[in-house]
Amino acid sequence: MNTSxxxxxxxxxxxxxxxxxxxxxxFAAAAVTLxxxxxxxxxxxxxxxxxxxxxxxxxxxxxxxxxxxAVALFAVSQAIIISTPAGCVAKQKTRGAVLFAxxxxxxxxxxxxxxxxxxxxxxxxxxxxxxxxxAALFSIALKINRIAAYAIFAFALWMLYILYFSFAxxxxx
Length: 173
Known about the structure:
Elements: H1 3-16, H2 21-42, H3 45-50, H4 60-83, H5 90-115, H6 120-144, H7 146-172
Helix pairs in contact: 2-4, 2-5, 4-5, 4-7, 5-6, 6-7
């Protein structure tokens, strides 16, 4: 067998050994539940009827589905970072937790800003700030746990689509 494959497998197994599964499940469930609550409370039906959506936009079902998956991945990454043994990365874990909390609050605020207030410029700026926080979190997570970094990268890819969506709404409305 290829030694590089065995080394990669060994590294993944070592990083997975530190993960607290209960904490990961709790973080993911809490993030998705809060996302659903903010989505239900933050979307005004009358305001949505007046918004012109881009042609390449997902249907509302798929938008909510992928949004839930992305937020769950983001929360899982933070749970992995928190459950990693402190060692010499305690300061980075604290910075990561603060950045995570700020980014998650902005993600939840984005929904009512876009779909109730119809403030598309502010929504686009919020997504840009979230993307900057994701970049900083990715660099922190890369030093602590690569699996968490990959989950943040997947969330950042979803936020890239949200940036396109917000910018398209800004231009169309």
